[in-house]
Amino acid sequence: MAKYRKLSRTAAQRKALLRGQVTALLANGKIVTTEAKAKEIRKIAEGLIALGVKEKDNFETVKVTAKVARKDKDGKRVKEVVDGKKVTVYDEVEKEIKKDLPSRLHARRQMLKVLYTVKTPVEGSKKTKEVDMVAKIFDEIAPKYAGRNGGYTRIVKIGQRKGDAAMEVLLELV
């Protein structure tokens, strides 16, 4: 018995396709694809979510002092003249950051191997913002499924595609 479906693609094409589909599923919550692809995507996505559920609390908070540029009411940096040169004024600020424990760091790196970066449009402007998918798994998706042992996705058959009669399905997070 084969370990996985080849999906009529070379290894590099298959890996890129599955990475893209898994990223889209976790970013949007659902995707429409063929049944064979959905079964492969489901395996990968469930593994990532299970990893996130297991490691979601493995971090420690650390207080760090950081220098941050002082800004005026317009959001521009405040400059001061020192020895004839304009120099930016900095304030020291204490911040609390999450520091991953080794097991969570390893899980993060395993997820980064699979997931692509996602860019979402910012409302009211033409700019896009990068979404950290690993942080989304740890902070949003994993807490939702903390009390659940597997079965994080659902496959719903939609019907056959008109062009080639391939069975299309809706793959969604439960």
From TrEMBL:
A biological process from GO: translation
Stored SUPFAM superfamilies: Prokaryotic ribosomal protein L17
GO molecular function: structural constituent of ribosome
One Gene Ontology cellular component: cytosolic large ribosomal subunit
Pfam families in the cross-refs: Ribosomal_L17
Superkingdom of origin organism: Bacteria
Keywords of this entry: Ribonucleoprotein, Ribosomal protein
Record-stated family: Belongs to the bacterial ribosomal protein bL17 family.
Quaternary structure (record): Part of the 50S ribosomal subunit. Contacts protein L32.
UniProt protein name: Large ribosomal subunit protein bL17
